[in-house]
Amino acid sequence: MTTSKPAEVGEEIASAADASPAPRPRGSVGELLRKLHGLVGGFLGAAIVLVLLVVLLTSTESSFLTFGNLKNVLITNSPLFVVAVGMTFVMISSGFDLSIGAMMAVSEVLLWEFLQLGVPSVVAIALVLLAGFLIGALVNGALVGVFGVNFFVATLGSMTLFYGIVDVVTNGTTEIVSSHTLSSIGYGDILGVPVPIAIVLVALLGGGFVLRWTSFGRTVYAVGGNREAARLAGISTRWVVMSVYGIAGLCGALAGVIDAGRLGAASPTDGSSIALISGAAVLLGGTSLFGGVGGLAGTIVGVLVIAVLGNGVNLLGVSNYWQGVVTGGVLIGAILLARYQGRGQHVH
Amino acid sequence: MTGPVHSGEPVVQLDGIDKEFAGVRVLQGVDFDLCAGEVHALVGANGSGKSTLMQIVYGVHSPTRGTLSINGEQLRLRHPKDALRRGIAAVPQELPLVASLSVAENICFGDLPCRAGIVRWRDLDRRADAALSQVDVEGAIHPRQLVGSLGLASQQLVSIARALAQGARVLILDEPTSSLGPEAVARLHEVIDRLRSEGRAVAFISQRLDDIVALADRVTVLRDGRVAGRLLREDVTPEAVAYLMAGAVGATGPERVDAKADDRNMEVLSVEGLPLPGSVSGVTLSVHCGEVLGLAGLAGSGTSELLRVLYGTVRHHKGAVRLFQHDVAKWPIRRRIGAGMGYLSGNRQAEGLVLGQTIEFNLTLALNRRGRLWPLPRRRQARRVAEVMEQLNIRPRDPKTLAVALSGGNQQKVVVGRWLLAGTRLWLLDDPTRGVDVHARAEIHGLIRQHVAQGGGALVTSSDIHELLESCDRLLVFSRGQLVAQVDPAVTGEDEVLALAGGLIPAA
Ligand SMILES: Nc1ncnc2c1ncn2[C@@H]1O[C@H](COP(=O)(O)OP(=O)(O)OP(=O)(O)O)[C@@H](O)[C@H]1O
Ligand SMILES: [Mg+2]
Q: How high is the pLDDT of residue A347?
């Protein structure tokens, strides 16, 4: 409960006669937090968790902060990064793509088929990426955007369908895919940067450019934030939704190509948990499940939290049984923190 | 009219209230009190802090500094429920209704009549009916209807009924008349008079100065978050209030520009036999170059629907719509916008704004509708955004401000500004000045006229018939989906328009 001296109040009124309110200089912790918040947007909570994790691991494990380990973390998580880019688009448009992991399996198996048929591997990869985009747009995108099916139902259905088709084609067995191009995707370098990391950088920069600097990016935010307002402003909401699921399909296919390169194999069960994990990373990064806000900067932080966490439980030698418990607990904590600090943002 | 039944002690008292949002001070040392048996009006320009001050009274915000006392007891409210428990009910500016629930459930929300945990639907309907019948002149709202299927005016009546049903001793009404037609406003005035004579306390915000003159026992004027002046009943005139709001004699808007005489015969829009719900023969009308055409009608007259049909949000199979000689009847919205149409929905929050995004994002939404993959011309757009924000006096002036954090009137200016930016030539405006202060209202009408003079036209509806008569070249009067009359605003009074709209005078 606050009380204020009447005299003070009187003075304020007297001095408030005509001038317009001037911003007052202040230097408190609250102010600092606000500035930080302005800087990092809706993912302050995730950023704090990331810093804490890094500090903790650096101080307890000498092998954590080494070039080799960090590079390894990025490479292992490159499919997650790429998938999270697609998921960010879908979630900003207020959707979710459960089938994005299944798309990885589809693309690996397609790649295997194309190589079997003797298609040159560069062409095969291009075809697989195109197929990923088209399948995403024409299956998930059309179901959600044109037929108005709920995204959860639509992508759960397509996920089941995709894995089913993959099983039929491969009889459920892992097939060997080997080509020179693929192994250089998995293990090569470009200008000293491992190819998977280079692919992640391209995906992040490309996605970030589209979301922030183009009018297509604006339409994605608008459709997610207020679909009816977007429609009345002349935005073709169907096209936006279809494109967004197409981008998710493309990202899933790209992640599949990376995995095929790394493993030299097409696995019919690949990506079975990546949809939910990437969704959690995007959420951690401040993109709302209700759409309309968020961005890739936050997604990077969100994926890094999950990547570092996974690396940490390994380095610390947490037993397999406990890894899930630790990871889940930290994730829930981070999401709570993200929510807490995001509360000041909204009215009501 | 009943006189005030004052009883000395204020029921609600605010002392030295400061309120900051993220370091920005929006209220500064405001004192305000409310006594039983009086109507205390709060007026001020858009963004002056009226809603924020009242939200402190009904428990949405806590003051940064200063105190709130209820019945002499100093306390802090944490939630609107706290306020309700202490007898304070509110009709917020942005209606707090659940679209997917029925009218009755909304009215009794949080206090459903139950026995052993089972809702007694019959009692629910009865209670809702009792509350509704106080405000719903036409009896057009049914308790079992879904709120989402109602127009904005009806939704406003439902939320007023809800506040009345709560039986509070203190009622806070934040722009309750902003979308109401004349009859509903008159009925609301009666209701408020009755509440006053029952010894209840009413705080009332409105941008319609007629409301203030008709109702207020006292007026407090806010300007930039401070009290700019107070008036007692006998001193309340529209001029005095407008003067205190702006701190200057009100601007009359930009200079009036008319289209060149030889352009005026050109038809911008021609409509033939367009079906509307309730209409028998369909609507036929045309808009000429440089013309602002007003559409008047009571709630349910079909004027809002007409604009939506013209914009293509609803498919129609009969009738012809020609825009600049193109037959646009089958065109999708985005193509109509390309040809120069722009439609402003009467419901800015549900159908206009992307609330989680910035002013700049919202202003350029129609401009950036095409969804291309090349870089936006950000510099150029930023310049245009700054111009429009200046013209419409959108506050705060920072284009990065989120739309949620804007006051109601400033949100409205943003949705108007969107079409200024998009190069609109045929304006379809559903109540474009809802919640906008008097000065900005003149500015908006002036700007629309300027744009229209360069070879366009406008169709405007408003719940405020007086405003239509002042701003339009021609007025079409609608009643139950039928175009019943065309009148010349220069020689027609509000009463005559009302009589035509109510079907009291047979159509000429
Ligand atoms: N949740 C919020 N976060 C940040 N700023 C806010 C928030 N709510 C209101 N404001 C700011 O406070 C100021 C006062 O707003 P308020 O809604 O009280 O104005 P108002 O007098 O009701 O105006 P109107 O007539 O347009 O409804 C505005 O500048 C607005 O931008
Ligand atoms: Mg307000």
A: 33
Structural domain ending residue among the three candidates B219, B249, B279: B249
B4, B79: one domain: yes
Which of A16, A240, A243 lies nearest to residue B29, judging by beta carbons?
A16
Range of the domain at B282: 267-352+425-501
What distance, in Å, lies between the first and last C-alpha atoms of chain B? 36
- Gap between the Cα atoms of A132 and A106, Å rounded: 8
Strands B218-223 and B226-232: antiparallel
B120-153 residue pLDDT tens: 888 898 989 999 988 887 778 999 999 988 888 8
| Nearest atom within ligand 1 for CA of residue B45 | 25
What angle do the packed helices A195-213 and A67-76 form, to 10 degrees? 60
Residue B368 lies in a domain: no
Atom 6 of ligand 1: nearest residue by CA position: B405
- Where in the sequence is the domain holding A231, given as residue range(s)? 80-295
pLDDT score, position A14: 32
A21's CB contacts (< 8 A; 6+ apart) are B25, B26, B28, B224, B225, B226
What residues of B are in contact with residue A230 (Cβ under 8 Å)?
354, 365
pLDDT in tens, A148-178: 999 999 999 999 999 999 999 999 899 999 8
Q: Is residue A239 assigned to a domain?
A: yes
B357 to chain A: which residues are within 8 Å by CB? Answer: 221-222, 225, 292-293
Provide φ and ψ at B168, rounded to 5°: -80, 155
Backbone angles phi, psi at A69, to 5 degrees: -65, -45
Task: Note the pLDDT tens digit of each residue in B423-455.
Answer: 899 999 999 999 999 888 998 999 999 889 988
| Three-state secondary structure call for residue B216 | coil
In a domain, B405, yes or no: no
User: Sheet containing B10-21: which strands, arranged edge to edge?
Assistant: B24-35, B10-21, B65-70, B73-75
Residue B15 sits in the same domain as residue B135: no
pLDDT in tens, B449-464: 988 998 899 999 998 9
Give the model's confidence band at B359: pLDDT under 50 very low, under 70 low, under 90 confident, else very high: very high
Task: Judge if the beta carbon of residue B48 lies within 6 A of ligand 1.
Answer: yes
> Average pLDDT in the B285-299 region?
92
Number of domains in chain B: 3
pLDDT at A30: 58
Number of domains comprising chain A: 1
Residue B400 belongs to some domain of the structure? no
What's the CATH number where B81 sits? 3.40.50.300
The answer to whether residue B227 sits within a structural domain is yes
**Looking at the partner chain, which of B29, B311, B404 has a beta carbon nearest the beta carbon of A12?**
B29
- CA of B8, closest CA in chain A: separation in Å? 21
Using a CB-CB distance cutoff of 8 angstroms, which residues of chain A are in contact with residue B227? 13, 16
For tokens 């509360």, name the residue.
Answer: A343
Q: Which ligand is nearest to the CA of B93?
A: 2
Domain annotation covers residue A227 = yes
Mean of pLDDT values over B170-183: 93
pTM confidence score: 0.91
Residue A96 placed within a domain: yes
Which of residues B166 and A23 earns the better pLDDT score? B166
Q: Is B337 on the interface with A (CB under 8 A)?
A: yes
Residue A185 token pair:
């995707």
Nearest ligand for residue B50 CA? 1
Tell me if A55 is assigned to some domain: no
User: Cα of B44 to ligand 2 centre, how many Å?
Assistant: 9
- pLDDT, one tens digit per residue, over B216-244 is 999 999 999 999 999 999 888 888 888 88
- The two structure tokens encoding residue B133: 């019948």
CA–CA dist B375, B367 (Å, integer): 14
Nearest CA owner, ligand 1 atom 14? B49
Chain B partners within 8 Å of A31 (Cβ): 23
Q: Which of B331, B368, B381, B397 to mutate to test the interface with A (most CBs of A within 10 A)?
A: B368
Nearest Cβ partner for B373 among A34, A214, A235? A214
